[in-house]
Amino acid sequence: MKTQGQPFRIYTPASLGAAIRHYRQQAGLSQADLAERTGLNRTYLSDLEQGHETEQVKRILRVLKQLGVRMTLEEADW
Amino acid sequence: MKTQGQPFRIYTPASLGAAIRHYRQQAGLSQADLAERTGLNRTYLSDLEQGHETEQVKRILRVLKQLGVRMTLEEADW
DNA sequence: CTAGTGTGTCTGAATATCAGGGCAACGTTA
DNA sequence: TAACGTTGCCCTGATATTCAGACACACTAG
Questions:
Q1: Which residues of B sit within 8 Å Cβ distance of A?
Q2: For the whole model, what pTM was predicted?
Q3: Sites in chain A below the pLDDT cut of 70
Q4: How far apart are CA A39 and CA B40, in angstroms?
Q5: How far is B41 from chain A (nearest CA, A)?
Q6: Do A34 and B76 touch (CB under 8 A)?
């Protein structure tokens, strides 16, 4: 049983942040936990989840939209 | 509804770039075309397709991997 | 009440990135 | 051959981002 939730379709930095927050909370991790595990700053993760990580992600999403490509996030078995 | 190609699973900046290149070529666009349509610099797109747009994408992918989340790109009907 | 946890947010400094311009190499076509 | 289209790559200045560290607030447990 995969227990896969619904995939997230990513169109904006905000939706990316919301998806990340969802998966982080589902994993039972705090921002500090995840920051430590990824070697990233907690402030960065906070901003990321709120969609404040704008320019770079927006650029890529703009390219994908122009090409008619959809970005999806979903649980994976790796 | 067109035939959907196989989705791309994105694990690295290089695979993101390869997917973008695939879709751009499928759309019959040059880098310059796409740059104009997206308002981005052609050099940026060149780097992006080669996976040289590293840090930001790598950070996000690192977060997703840590959370057991997979990023996928595929054609969308919009 | 007090301590601890989680998160948002601020500052300033250090980095990373992008746009714009240009040039070389390559393949294709006339 | 020459002209053209495409792409990789270089440089520079300007901009955007990330980080560390700190603090406030809300909430919860003891």
A1: 7, 16, 19-20, 23-24, 27, 29, 34, 37-40, 44-45, 48, 53, 56-57, 59-60, 62-76, 78
A2: 0.91
A3: 1-4, 78
A4: 30
A5: 11
A6: no
